[in-house]
# Entry
Amino acid sequence: MNEGIVVPVAVFTAGVLIVFVIMYFKAKTRAGVQKTIRLALEKGNELTPELLDRLAAPKQSQSSDLRRGVIALSIGIGFAIFGTIIGEPDAVRPIIGVGMFPAIIGIGYLILWKTSDREQKS
# Structure
């Protein structure tokens, strides 16, 4: 196999694998919720709309935007540092450019966290 194609194939395969794992666990969680609802109905328990809403959409913690923002920003900064450390003139700008995507997403999450925090206080 050509050595120049191994890295792109590995990166693409890893991305597909990550998406698959995330989708698998989300489907497994939904199946668990449906099983719980089915068992409750079989036992004759009454299911209120509020209970169904809580089971269908689990509430995210208030710090989830902060956590996601810090992690994404850190990944972006890590890419920028990695690109700088490599020192290869042809690689520095592209790696920093790749690092900008998670960094900007992280900044967006931090803005969401800050604005939602203010909305909850007022």
